[in-house]
Amino acid sequence: MSESPLTKPEIEFPEGPAPTELQIVDIVEGEGSEALASSTVEVHYLGVEYDTGEEFDSSWSRGETINFPLRSLIQGWQVGIPGMKPGGRRKLIVPPAQAYGNAGFHPLAGKTLIFVIDLVSVS
Known about the structure:
This protein has 2 helices and 6 strands. By secondary structure, the protein is mainly β. The protein has one domain (about 25-115): Chitinase A, domain 3, CATH 3.10.50. Strands 1, 2, 3, 4, 5 and 6 form a 6-stranded antiparallel beta sheet that branches. The mean pLDDT is about 95.
């Protein structure tokens, strides 16, 4: 497990209606090789629901990063992570169409999600 120099983020409760398009906001710019759509990434992340602010998932809470190919993730991550560099922190606000769909059996279907992602490494 790699250690991120950053600590678990706190997400401020958003104001106004949820955006209908993917929002990408760099909080900290990293250094080194950029993540590509074809990359495997190691990240720390926090995910909350836009409407309630409730945390639904966090690698920070499990105490370890996760490592996976970008192409296996939700579309919002596939579009929102490329261009990040190791050591970077980025906030993604992901509408349902780019998360778990507008309807369906997934508990997060139909929800806009906010993620703060720390890119630890790229391969």
